[in-house]
Amino acid sequence: MVNAVLESSSPIDRRVATDPIVAAIDIGTNSVHMVVVRIVTSLPAFTIIAREKETVRLGDRDPQTGNLTPAAIERAISALKRCQEVAKSLNAQQILAVATSAVREAPNGNEFVRSIETELGLAVNIISGQEEARRIYLGVLSGVEFNNTPHLIIDIGGGSTELILGDSDEPRTLSSTKIGAVRLTSEFVPKNPVSDRDLMYLQAFVRGQLERATDEIEANLRSGEAPKMVGTSGTIETLAAILNLDKNGQIPERIHGFAIQLSELRNLIQRLRRMTVAERTTIEGMSERRAEIIIAGAVILQEAMTMLGMPSLSVCERSLREGVIVDWMLTQGMIEDRLKYQGSIRERSTLKIAGKYGVDLPHSERVAELALSLFDQTHGQLHTWDKSVRQLLWSAAILHNSGHFVSHDAHHKHSYYLIRYGELLGYTEAEIDTIANIARYHRKSAPKKKHQNLQNLSKEQKSIVSQLSALLRVAVALDRRRIGAIKDVTLNCNPTSHECHLTFYPADPTDACVLECWSLDYKKPVFETEFNLKLSTTRG
After folding, report:
1. Exposed e or buried b per residue across 464-492, where buried means at least 16 C-beta atoms within 10 angstroms of its C-beta
2. Structure pTM?
3. Can you list the domains of the chain with their CATH numbers?
């Protein structure tokens, strides 16, 4: 379902060649997953350079003995061999492998692990349910901005479901319950379509199994806290993709940050359970193997959200594999503490992309500082956007010139594509689209309705793009020579008289900043049109 995506070779790649490349493999009940990353030790962070997945169904164990079957073992070892070959081809210095529910429960699980080491020379660690939950927490922590707000994390695997409560410091609860999409399908979904009786039994069983974990979470929530919910795993990603298909008529390239509403999930379950497996496979984005187990997985998610009183959740594409990477970084002393690692995820992700595309960071940081100063000074006069929107402007300012990596010509358009389809973490897809468009309009044409890149934006997003890109244009003009000639500005606007006056303060009192003034005169018409003001300037 997820194909390998490789980064292109570039001078930037060669410059960071000393950063280690590490692979992490998750041997699950349903699938074998691998992620290959380059560790950016200076941030610290990591860039995903490849993903692999293969459905092996280790969870289809012998019903009499509980052992992993020879056929499943053969499929798994074959998949691991391919993962190993991909990792080696990408110069991975180390391959970290963990096995979860199916292997830890099977009587011949240890024998299976030993056979992997004998045949492939690959060491596999069988981890407990709670340790699996801990590493899932670390993986989500590396991809979602918690903002010190408690988050409920749910990961639905083939053999187990992990529920975690954390708040960007330490996880408060870590639970692993023996209910998974593969396990419950074999036990409670004997045929398709799913009958009312079978569905009722499945829901009742899931509620009973989740009761202890949900009670523990509620006991650890403090008075007045309003937690948010995050979901990971192939089941949840597939459900989100189908719901997006229902709304927008297409499967998104990335599902990270997509919201699943409980009410929509309930309706989807009723629709899917009336279908045969063959009928489900006709839905775009639904593989045959996923179609077989989707009802059980969806019911687990529905009952967990209902029991926890969560009307919606957001999808995170990072989970156990990325958590294995983070855990390794912690053991290597690359991360001082989890809180520091989490606290600036958006900033670190933006700077990582800036480094990848050779952005002139001192110039971009000056532009960002000027843009944020203009944002703050005009707040309440020209706009009412909050701090979350302010951060979108910062990221756009840092990355506005990233398109130079492709070509100087039309580099603002290249910046849009590099930002839009890069791996900006901590932001939703809608926020990434907004950032990309703010950067897109830092020069040349102002936003126009006919532009294709604006078609999927909401009315509010279009307003943010129009106003913030106008501020970014002014900031870019004020650092025209890229030497920090202007150290500060004040902006006094009077919307009533349609006048705005900018005073700039040179870093060198003898510098007339002629080129910056010329550039500002050239770029200010978009600002004037957007805010219906006449902009004048003086030297302070």
Report:
1. bbbbbbbbbbbbbbbbbeeebbbeebebe
2. 0.77
3. 11-126 (3.30.420.40), 131-319 (3.30.420.150), 345-539 (1.10.3210.10)
